[in-house]
Description:
This protein is of the alpha/beta class. 32% of the residues lie in helices and 20% in strands. It has 20 helices and 29 strands. Strands 1, 2, 3, 9, 10 and 11 form a 6-stranded antiparallel sheet that branches. Strands 8-5-4-12-23 form a 5-stranded parallel sheet. Strands 16-15-14-20 form a 4-stranded parallel sheet. Strand 25 (562-563) and strand 26 form a beta hairpin. The radius of gyration is 25 Å and the shape is globular.
Amino acid sequence: GHSRDREVFGAWNSMATCAHSKPACIFFLLTATMCPSTAFMGPAAGTFNTHTARLRTSSHARGVLRSGSVSISMVGERPGPDAIKGKTASDKLQEQIDSDATDISAEQANKFDIGVSQFQKVPSATWTGTSTLERRVDTPLIGVWGQTWDSEMAAKVRQGALSWPQLVLDRALDLVEDSFQKRNTPPSGRQGSGYYFNKLGAPQRHRIVVIGSGWGSHAFVKSLDATNYDVTLVSPRNYFLFTPMLAGAATGTVELRSITESIRAANPDVNYLEATVTEVVPGTKTISCQSVVCQGAECSIDDFDLEYDSLVYGVGAGVNTFGIKGVKDHCFFLKQVNDAARLREAIGNTFERANLPDMSDEERLRTLTFVVVGAGPTGVELTAELKDFVEEDAARFYPHLLPFIRIKVLEASDRVLMQFEEGLQGKAVKDLEKRSSRAEGLLSSLPDDYVTVMLKSSVKEVSATDMTLNDGTVIPYGIAVWAAGIGPLPLTLDLIKNVPEQNADAKARGRLLCDRWMRVAGCPGVIALGDASYVADDPLPATAQVAAQQGAYLARIYNRQYDMMPLIPTKRLGATAETLGGVRFNQGVLAKPFQFLNLGILAYTGNKNALAQVEVSGSKFEIAGLVGWLSWRSVYLSKQVSKRNMAMVAFDTHTHT
Length: 657
């Protein structure tokens, strides 16, 4: 039979599984044959850093180097005698950059909560389930990049959005149009060719700089025909991460390498720079960056500037701790590869520590208490994965520890999974708190109520061993995971502070104010995607689904040669006509604004149960139980970004089921 062990102590060995399972071995070898290793560079433990944001630096330009048609101002010294030395020098320097680049003050954390806050009611002006949000009808007199409106243009902008059937058909036609374009575009096989290999004296092409490698940025570069532009992506993370499966990676259900894709593999004609963006200067159309450079055992931080014609701003958001004392020091997060790897190792260490004979029962109970703060999709799915791990694997390998295991979910509001309908919310709590009926003999010593969902329970302070709630309750714990909300990065807050137009709408809450074509107000040439953007007359939830659709939409705008500078993006003179232009819901040479197609929301609740909520033409359909789990599993599998990832995820989940 197939191995079901979730190894939480390190990287899982595929070849070891082959020794126990011939079908798994054949599947693994076929996967390796279909997907050569040279096409992908996955994350190695401890080698990837996970944030793109701004930190404060003081440096002076030392010269300008031009390579191709992208200008780089090199700043800073090469590694010298004062450079940090040692095996982990690079990691330490990058941690220094990341810490400064993601930390915001307690005041900012409370003021700018991007997602559905776990500490307050959901305002009616933001996300309320999958319902279409009410649009603002007022139209400004001046465009976000200073364009002047007239009555004719205003009337075109006010044209109604497509109905649900029209939008579905339009997206299907988009996919067909994309296939025609790919077929007509000869493969270049160049790696970042626009950046490095432009012929001397050739006309300078439009320079697109992309910040970040998350959902929006990845969808943009993957769909973009980069042979017509000079495209450079800047991020300290050289891979895309399928974040919805991070909870499974933290408990060993899937491997981290299975849910990542190299940015270079996503589009060979996009140049990648491993660096952290530290500042955006719209006035000069430049960004400042920092990168860790190593020569031998010596490492230092180098600074450089990069010029752009268009800037795709896809930095996303960071973890919001709401300024609560002790959260950063004592809680695990679950947002990046390193977070899942650290949590996975900690779970294994916790069980081994609790297994030592000199530990008292009281200390063993504390050590095996897992606290998850936040009952949104991340918190619920992590709890479900932990529950599966306890009932399937811990029951087999640590049966004597089962009486001491506790999992507590803390939620400050009065409900879990705020995006779902009330009936599904109740089903989620029931699924989480119900012990599995499988393997009753092994689970007989596991308390029936070992999983507890605690509503209206907000955190006041966190110490190394205890968590104090605002009502005075003290919860001893061994591992605490913070999944209570997201907030803006310092890079975004600095840009908002420096651009007066960004302070026009308080509802943006730390996001960049944009129009319906995602153009950033007061920043000509800057387009924002995903969690870092806020469209005033069409607010959208901060989800991967929204960011990915925005990235693909923007790529089509560039592929179809629209000029983003006019009031309404307009086809350039001489642009190639769209193959299906005659049957599209378009406005001739004018680009349609972005419209979000809600494909539904999913959440795994444990023991092969999941929730699915789908909205079709205003009607909501609710699915739960085993059928919901099949829907959840099939959607997550189909949404993998490559055939390689799809095969590896299927392989992981098959051997762990």
